[in-house]
Each structure stands twice: as C-alpha cells, then as structure tokens.
Amino acid sequence: GSYVWDANGKQYLDFISGIAVCGLGHCHPELVKVLKDQVDTLWHVSNLYWIKPQVEAAEKLVQISGLGKAFFCNSGAEANEAAIKLARKYFYRRQESHKNHIIVFKESFHGRTLATVTATGQSKYQEGFAPLPEGFVYAEYNNRDSVKKMVTKNTCAIMLEPVQGEGGIHPADMDFLRGLRELCNKEELLLIFDEVQCGMGRTGHFFAFQSYGIKPDIVTMAKSLGGGIPIGAMLATDEAASGFAPGDHASTFGGNPLATAVACKVIDLISDPAFLKQVEESGRYLQESLSQIIDDRIVGIRGRGLMVGMEFNIDVKELIGLCMDQGLLLLNAGPRVLRFVPPLNISQTEINQGVAILKEALKEL
C-alpha cells in the first residue's frame, strides 16, 4: 500500500514511492503473486533466447505507444544511454555520421552514466567527472526559439522530458512540444522523450506524450514499469529502430523473466482506462488540496497528474525533515521545490492525511 515502517515500527505515509518507482504502492498483491510464480519457473537465460514474458511486455508497450519495437534494460539511465546510441547509429547507417549532436535542455535529468550525466543540463551532477563526452548542447526548456538556434548540420536528435522531474517539476507547454515535433520533421531529426519519471500513468496518461497529441521517434521508460523491480525500456518507431542491427546494443540482464513478468502485470493494471482516470482525478484533488494551504513562503504549485511540485521561497530540506518526523515521506526537486510522487492508487483519505501533516509541519517551520 502507501505505507512503510522503519526499524522501530514507526509508520510513514509514503509520498515518494521509491522516487516514482512503486507506482502501485508497496507489495501490491497481484505483483507479489506474479513474482512468486515466476521465481518458481525461470529466473535468467539471457537474450540469446526468446523470453516469453519479455515478448509479451514488448507487445503491450508497442500497442499502447503506437511505436514499433522495444528494447529492455535495467534502469532509466540505461534506457537513455540506449536512446543516445540509437540516435547516432541511425544516422551513421544513413551515411550521415556527421549528424551526432543532440540538443538537450537546461535543468534536465537523464541519468548518471557518463553519457546521460552529460545530457543532464545541471552542472552539479557533472562536477568531477571531466572529461565529459562531446556532442551535447543545452537549450532553454519551453523556449522553441532557443532550440531552433542550436540546430546545425551536425544535429541528430532533440532529447527531453515531457515533464522535467529533478529540475523542479516543469511540464512542457503544448505549443512547445508540438513545435519540437514539427521542427524534427522539418530538419529530419529524431525526437526522444525521456519518460522515466513522468511515464507509466504518472500524469494520468499511460505515456505523458499522449496528452500532447504527438508521438516521439524514441521514448524511454523505467521506474514504475517494474513496480519496484529494476527494469528499463526504450521504445522506437520501426524507422528509428532500423539504426540498430543485431549486436549493436545489448544488456545481459535486460528483459529477464522476473522483471518482464512483473512488468506485464504492471502494464495491464496501469493501462486500464478507469485506473488512469482515477490518477487524473487524484492528481487534481492533490493540487486543489495543496492550493488551500495559506503560507507566504509558497510560491506556486504545478505538475501533471500525480507528479506535483510545490515551490517555496526558502530551502525545503528542513520542511522535509519535519514531515518525516510526523510520519510523511516527501522529497525535493531542486532546493526549493517539494516533490509529490505518491503511489498512483493512493486514496483521497491518504491525500488528506498527507496534506494535514504538511500543514502541521509548516507551522513548525
């Protein structure tokens, strides 16, 4: 469910859900059953062979996304690494190897491998890891003109989060995202969406991009895909996927029977239209409840679905500690933004409880 307990038996209401990982809460009974059944069947054989739940998970994701092929790995960083490699290899195969630069965005976050931390538009994550890989340039989020100015004959792709997570919970504007799709079509670039945090129903749509009425060429996902079991995925159109030939990219543990069996059940539960509608309603209720808190230190509230940020004019570190003392787990998204990413099946009663604790903590701050 939405609760966890520490070593002393103290109960906490979890509005972090493992940093948007436990999308169905902790130890969801249907996921527990699937995992136990798979443990008794088969753990690992490698991708030298067809793996039944991997094929099934791929079919489900391709059908929901409208894309063409799926690649499985173990994390969001690995999924984004695969997307970066695919974008470059795609143009290499088209005899356009000079097209290898990727436009990314300031305040973004794409992972902690050398390539993905370089794609991340926050210098604090890159400090001490020089020399960083070449080929990334940083545009202003929600500013199409800043992107257009960076397109050159060497550009191969534009990569971004439809809702920036670590950068402070910033949803992309409709015109901005649609404008990027048009720009990529015009300049023959690949559009890559990082939905590691904002995907899997978090915004009230299975994929965040579905609310914008456009499709990317590549989309990455992880976190809630396994409901707490490590798994990542990259989906691509058939055209973009043609950049990889067998052996160009692989993952020893990616798509293993345990992870993909659980992912199949997670996909089934989250893709239910009634479930997604409830996420949308719960997100709206959470934002409305937060907006009723009167405090001069609150700057604003923003987000999509159950991915919500509350910005303050002060550092939120102490407030997070006070909430934890009172039994509510929250985290930040930058120094001054409280991040709310509770389980997608959280109840209104639990939302009320969490908001009440936050109000009391603010009184103590």
Give a topology summary:
Elements: E1 3-5, E2 11-14, H1 17-20, H2 29-39, H3 52-65, E3 69-73, H4 76-93, E4 101-105, H5 114-119, H6 123-126, E5 136-139, H7 144-148, E6 155-160, E7 163-164, E8 170-171, H8 174-187, E9 190-194, E10 218-221, E11 232-236, H9 238-241, H10 257-270, H11 273-291, E12 298-304, E13 307-312, H12 317-325, E14 328-329, E15 331-332, E16 337-340, H13 348-364
Parallel strand pairs: 2-14, 4-5, 4-6, 6-9, 9-10
Antiparallel strand pairs: 1-2, 3-11, 7-8, 10-11, 12-13, 13-16, 15-16
Structure in a nutshell:
This protein has 13 helices and 16 strands. It has a seven-stranded mixed sheet, sandwiched between helices.
Could you explain the architecture of this structure?
The protein has helices at residues 17-20, 29-39, 52-65, 76-93, 114-119, 123-126, 144-148, 174-187, 238-241, 257-270, 273-291, 317-325, 348-364; strands at 3-5, 11-14, 69-73, 101-105, 136-139, 155-160, 163-164, 170-171, 190-194, 218-221, 232-236, 298-304, 307-312, 328-329, 331-332, 337-340. Helices cover 38% and strands 18% of the residues. Helix 11 (273-291) runs parallel beside helix 13. Strands 3-11-10-9-6-4-5 form a 7-stranded mixed β-sheet, sandwiched between helices. It has a 4-stranded antiparallel β-sheet with strand order 12-13-16-15, with helices on one face. The protein has a 3-stranded mixed β-sheet with strand order 1-2-14. The chain folds into 2 domains: 3-27 and 273-364, Aspartate Aminotransferase, domain 1 (Alpha-Beta Complex); 42-270, Type I PLP-dependent aspartate aminotransferase-like (Major domain) (Aspartate Aminotransferase, domain 2, 3-Layer(aba) Sandwich).
